[in-house]
Design goal:
single chain; 231 residues; alpha/beta; Rossmann fold; Arc Repressor Mutant, subunit A; 2 domains; six-stranded parallel sheet; 10 helices; elongated
Length: 231
Amino acid sequence: MNTEQAGGWRVAVVEDHFLQRTRTEELLTQAGRFDIIFSGTSAPDFVAWLRSAPKERWPHLLLLDLMVERAPSVDVELVKAFLKGGLLIVVISAFASPPLTRSIIRAGVTGVVGKRDAEEDILAAIYTVLRGEEWMTAEVASLIAGDPDRPALSIQEERALVLYASGLTLEEVATAMNIGRETAKQYLDRVKKKYGAAGITVRSKLDFGRIAWSGGYVDLHPPQKFVSPDA
């Protein structure tokens, strides 16, 4: 999806705390290039708005709080439906429920920031996700690394995953590990099989990169300054 528009990016904000929502809107307004087309307290409110809004006014990006007081938490299947429809999502969470956060990341959300993070980090996460890249803070990486449901990998499997997810070819992974190409492939096939058994499909190199990121195996260091996609 091409998120660069003449009038900027259309953004929806779902946050039940009034002050947090208001400040988030101020940040977007001050940054420019953002058109806030929806601001509400819950995901169901956002869905109701979508049903009545013309598709040409639907947002490119959703800023989403996972936990809502006096209402159900965000439904993972709903998030999957948003993503399948082409909506980019940045989660802004207090991480009150690590299992929910892990489920949301497994669903395919590529931007997650904490409510205790700096405002610059929130903006950097938004810009990074709009570029089609991934953003995860150290707090989230720590939370994911502690996931008891994460498939257990051997040291060699982990190393093959990290090298491959970091951009090396299969041959380069084998060279770096001082093993044969087929052996390196076997390690990656085992990783694929273990994640498949956990219900996570791994078909492409992008999938390997995603599980390495969401599993805390790969550290992300996104640029702190936004570079326009047109640059």
